[in-house]
Amino acid sequence: MLEIQKKLTNTFYAILALPATAVGFALSTQIAALSWILNKKFGLNIHEVAFVWLAGPLAGIFGQVIVGMISDNVWFMKGRRRPFIIIGGIIGALMFLALPQIGVISEATGITNIILIASVIALMLDLSINVTFNPARSIIADLTPEGKKRTAGYVWMQVISGTFGVLAYFLSMVFGNETLLLIASVFVLVCSVFPILIIEEPRELEGLKESKEDAHTVMDIFKSIFPLYGFLVFGVFSLIFHFYQIELRAIHNPLLISALIYTVIIGVYIIYKSKTDKSDNIEFQKIMLAHTFTWIAFQSMFVMTGFFIDKQIIPNLDLTNVFANKFAEFLTGVEQTKDTTTGNIISFGFLILNAVGAVFPMALSAIAKKIGRVRTYTAALIFSAVGYFYIAFFGKHELNFYSGMFLTGIGWSAVISIVFSIVTERINQNKMGLFMGIFNLAVVLPQMMSQGVANIISETQNYQLLYILCGVFVCFSVVFWLFIKEPRSTADLVSHK
Q1: What residue ranges define each of the domains in the chain, with the CATH number in brackets?
Q2: Separation between Cα atoms, residue 177 and residue 100, nearest integer Å
Q3: Residue 307: is its pLDDT beyond 80?
Q4: In Å, how far from its chain's centre is CA 193?
Q5: Is 445 within 8 Å of 61 (Cβ atoms)?
């Protein structure tokens, strides 16, 4: 074992964060390039693009839970998390190479359905990300003790991951999205495979022994996610709806609203139940509920921001005076065109979001030591809600859009850092991979709801509604977080101040 691993030095935290950084870079590349390349190069509309993005949640449902369960119980290549990180990294690198070649693949295979080819590539790419991400997060918990050191591990993860996420958008503006995909292929391969080879995993997690209570069947998992049943039902419906839109259009919106109402009612029930049930399981379910609404907002933003820019910002712009284009021209020396303007604004906006996401976790960690992680997280989400509403009502102007992305980034910095340290103290430590996979359902099932949001926006042609709905969803999340208890390690620390 490396000495830096024994001492949990900052260098070790940085190395430990690299597999998750590979995933973060892959996600940033997807956000920058996937919707843009499908819309601008292959002509897919908003509903078709949203359908392709459904590949991610589908991969997450199967990939993270199953891989999490398996990785808790296998030992292969001198690790329980290592094999999945390596395999996921290799597949992800190959899919990034394939994505710009959709047209070539279509000609070579004789398959003329571009949506089908794009969906298969996106599914494999997202499957690789999901295969990698759960073990990449779980290994941080495996190798760090509860409390400040584990929080430090996840903060380091987000700082490094966020920094390289910024780099992804920067590279998008300098070299273009198709070149970014090639860069991502190399980066994901290197950061997934090589760091994990020098990290030593313990064969047995210290202080933990298998017991009958540790066993979890498929039915146990299904019971634990009952707050998410509404999203699960609508997610399945979304897949069917894509193929039978005319026949099912009448029940689409009522089912979407019903799924949301069900989730709110179950949330109220669980909060009421938690007054007498003080178990970690009930807290875990409350966290999942709160997290679901956050992810409807962020996934909808990731998928549809390009369409918002096309309809709400571009018509108000003098294309000779676009800040994002000037920035790209400064970096590249190449004159930008109308077709590149949307991509440049997307990349610059998400560059800001990820820059804030990379910097703020350190500040949030310091604040959390004083007021607690849950309060810090809730406050950060409030900034995201304000940012969404600001974009909705003032985002028709380019610079206002960037200001809103800055505010939204404060919440984003917490969503992908602090929440993991909170969750890991509410789950069975001997089943870290499994429960991190279950928790990921609070990400992927709400992501499938973005298909419903896309359909509403497509029907109404009201693209302002995108960010209004995002703000509303985050407000629901904030309300639920107000009823979540502080993890024991920081609760004791804050109470003694």
Answers
A1: 7-201+220-495 (1.20.1250.20)
A2: 9
A3: yes
A4: 21
A5: yes
| 59-77 residues labelled b (16+ CB within 10 A) or e (exposed) | bbbebbbbbbbbbbeeeee
**Rounded to whole angstroms, how far apart are CA atoms 418 and 158?**
9
Radius of gyration of the chain (CA): 22
Q: For residue 345, give Cα distances in angstroms to 181, 340, 461.
A: 18, 9, 21
3-class state of residue 110 by DSSP? coil
Q: What are phi and psi of 79, to 5 degrees?
A: -170, 160
User: Nearest-CA neighbor of 156 among 435, 148, 146, 428?
Assistant: 148
- Residue 39 CA: distances (Å) to CA of 33, 82, 471: 10, 36, 25
| Contact predicate 177/343, CB 8 Å | yes
What percent of the chain is predicted at pLDDT more than 70? Answer: 90
364 confidence band (pLDDT: 50, 70, 90): confident
**Of 192, 163, 170, residue with least CA distance to 85:** 192
Cα(89)–Cα(241) distance, rounded to whole angstroms? 32
- Kindly report the length of the chain: 497
CA 122, 125, 128: angle at the middle one, nearest 5? Answer: 150
Q: Which residue has the tokens 């910095």?
A: 413
Give the mean pLDDT of 459-464: 88
Coil, strand or helix at 482: coil
Instruction: Round to whole Å and give the CA distance between 234 and 238.
Output: 6
Tokens for 8? 């949990």
Residue with tokens 């690299």: 18
Per-residue pLDDT of 402-428, as tens digits, reads 999 999 999 998 887 778 778 877 776
Q: What DSSP state is assigned to residue 199?
A: S
Count of other CB atoms within 10 angstroms of residue 225: 18
Q: What is the pTM of this model?
A: 0.76
CA 143, 149, 154, 157 torsion-angle sign: negative
Q: What DSSP string describes 254-318?
A: HHHHHHHHHHHHHHHHHHHHTTT---HHHHHHHHHHHHHHHHHHHHHHHHHHHHHIIIIIGGG--
CB 55 within 8 A of CB 126: yes
- CA distances to 56, 96, 118, 344 from 30, rounded to whole Å, are 10, 9, 12, 15
Dist CA 341 CA 322 (whole Å): 8
Task: Decide: 300 and 53 in contact? Cβ < 8 Å.
Answer: no
